Amino acid sequence: MASSELKQRIAFLTWLLFCIYLWLSLAPLVSADEHNHVYEDGEEVVVWMNTVGPYHNRQETYSYFSLPFCRGPKEGIAHYHETLGEAFQGVELELAGLDIDFNMPVRRTTYCRIVLTEDTAQQLIYAVQNQYWYQLFIDDLPVWGIVGEVSESDSDRYYLWTHKRFQIGINNGQIVDVNLTSAAKRLIRPGARIAFSYEVIFRQSDVPFDKRFDKYLDPSFFHHHIHWFSLCNSFAMAAFLVCLVAFLLTRLLRRDYSRYSRAEESQWELERSFSDEFGWKQVYGDVFRPPAQPTTFSILVGSGVQLSFVVLCLILLAMSVDMNGERAGLVSAAIFLYSASSPIGGFVGAALYSRFYLASTATSSSSNNGQAASPRWIRQGVAQALLPPSLICGVAFPVNLVAVGYHSSRSLTPSQGLSVLAIVTFALLPLSLIGTLLGRNLCGRPSKLPCRLNAVPRPLPEKRHCLAEPPIICLLGGLLPFASIFVEMYYVFTSFWAYKIYYVYGFSFLAFALLLCATACVTIVCVYFLLNSEDYRWQWCSFMAGASTAVYLYVYAVYYFFFKTRMYGLYQTAFYFSFMALFCCGLALICGAVGFLAASLFVRTIYANVKTD
Ligand SMILES: *[C@@H]1O[C@H](CO)[C@@H](O)[C@H](O)[C@H]1NC(C)=O
Hints:
The chain crosses the membrane at residues 228-249, 297-318, 330-353, 385-406, 418-438, 472-493, 505-531, 543-562, 574-603. 56% of the residues lie in helices and 13% in strands. By secondary structure, the chain is an alpha+beta fold.
């Protein structure tokens, strides 16, 4: 009686927390609309200077005023308060001080002067040598300009562009187009007096406001026929894999079943043991044995399921909402979605862990006099919540140290680090623990297994073929899924590491779906081969067969670095390789989890129909 009361209380508490959670997740949707980008004539137009950095190292950015540039006279809001997502992307907005009012043309005006010293001249020369360019924002529209250029005749002379001509296209009181032209180059040398000037021209433009980002997109790149061709290829491959699995399920399995039932009917013990009793049926007493390291395994699968959910939601969100105007909108959405979906990870991880635990006690109670290890819920739940964030922090922390050493705008300040910590402790952890609680109580009982588990594990037979060794099977498993996505990955990489704005989310949605489909099919085939060689350790093998896609992707990333980009320097290199490692870890978790889920469905199905005695 007391326990039922307790259960009611727990249920109530859970419900309450769930409501709070729902409320929290809806709150950001309500306050979506901010200022509407409509200006009166004469209203102030703010120019935000963002960052400056070498052209070939996109992630190596510095605050614009770290170079000896000067601000205009106009005072205003001193520093823009960036969101966490913007901080991750290295956005660092500072007021340029240029006086621009809507629809009020400005003639060529000098806004500030500097005198170059030995140091500042060297700084500027270094910037010109490395093809530094800067970015600024006008009404959320990004504008790029180049710092200077090398003299064509004499490569020891470096010039600085000192004049900025803004051409602003307006349509119905809204800014729809901004062009920046640099002019008036001055030789950089110590002692030079340099005056910076600007001018502003307003033009009527017939670009509609909601199409104003279109000029930044590159359809000829993203809709190149190779992109379409690769998508068709992936389709064909996925179709082939689905057919393969269908073939496996119908033909091979039917053959196996009929073989087994013939053996069943045969009265002769001798014939029975020699003729047909081999293959996957032999391991029926072990196939539902929990994997080695059940805690780690359940944590990995839980995180993988959660990540797949987040990626799917992000792609759907990006497909349905135009995120161009939102600086770092996708990063912010990812942070939010990841925290909000952590109950899913907790749920799946705890349910799996609980099932593994109960399955292992079911056998050990007969063998070890009931001396099974007690479950470690707390450890599992906390580790489940903290695995991906600690993975990210473990990689990001050293890179951040390098960024701080470089004074890059991408380095996180301690307060931003604290807010990450706050998100993890106050949102991720409790939400994930709620998921753990629910998963354990609602889904923690193993559904009835088709076969009984043997008390003593069966010895693994000698492999007849080296291809049947689990590591080889796993490595081969990743090849086809990798082949189905690597062209899409080229486009994703190019938009991340170079200056293309990725906008073809329909492609990425299809590629993601095909990847999951290919992974599921390939894993099923791998598990069939593994079980057929009478090896019952299929759980880890199915996870690894999916996850090995990421190994190939990392190799591709190394190739991409050396042959497709021109990055240089410690900071950009460290950033590239650690970020790619994280990306591949995420992909490994996703594909591994999908592979395991598909394989466990497959295993359950085939053993449900076989008679065991
Ligand atoms: C900006 O440049 C493009 C391409 O040269 C041109 O079509 C457009 O009209 C320009 N916009 C303004 C406002 O001058």
